[in-house]
Amino acid sequence: MRINKYISETGFCSRRATNRLIEEKRITVNGTICEPGTMIVPGDVVLIDGESIPEKSACVYIALNKPVGITCTAAKTVKGNIIDFMNYPGRIFPIGRLDKDSEGLILMTNDGEIVNKMMRSEYGHEKEYVVKVDRLITEEFINEMSGGVEILGTITKPCRVSKISEHEFRITLTQGLNRQIRRMSKECGYRVVRLERVRIMNIERADLADGEWRELTQAELADLLVQLG
Fold first, then answer.
1. Is 223 marked active-site?
2. CATH of domain 3-52
3. pLDDT, tens digit, 9 for 90 and up, residues 152-194
4. Which of 44, 99, 111, 207 is catalytic?
């Protein structure tokens, strides 16, 4: 079994995070610094920062209403990181990202495999946002945003956009480009002043207060896993 799959199945972190640990030379296998693609066989001694990997605990799946100013990273060196903010009594990490200046729904877990599934499929599943901008929203703006906007050397996929009020709109994406909505809006001559994610696939923020979190229901988790395949 490849090292990144092995570690993700322990629940310590995702495959992507494991790859970063390998690059930082923080993983050893039988006393030798691990290389990308290393295969693990029964009996191998795998250490991270010189420590054994903790036994896998029961999987948890959490919906958090992230406030503005919190950074979606597990790196303790980053001030205002999401792990310190939650202070959860157990090791968890975010699924994907929501930039520091944005707020709203983000999922947290200790299940590395579901992270891998969601990251592989993030360009096909819906994420819904409510956005406030600095100018009056026009029909032309709605049409531009929904039809595709050129950013980061590509044209965004068509998406659903609807006007909520003079300065607010709702947008549903099936992509996850870096700061996508902010960049799209800027290309159309608008500046985002507030961005909230209200839904990820079948999981809704609903009435979670700012900074509040809850565990997913069994029904939500079952539906999510079916969609991920």
1. no
2. 3.10.290.10
3. 999 999 999 999 999 999 999 998 899 999 999 999 999 999 9
4. 99
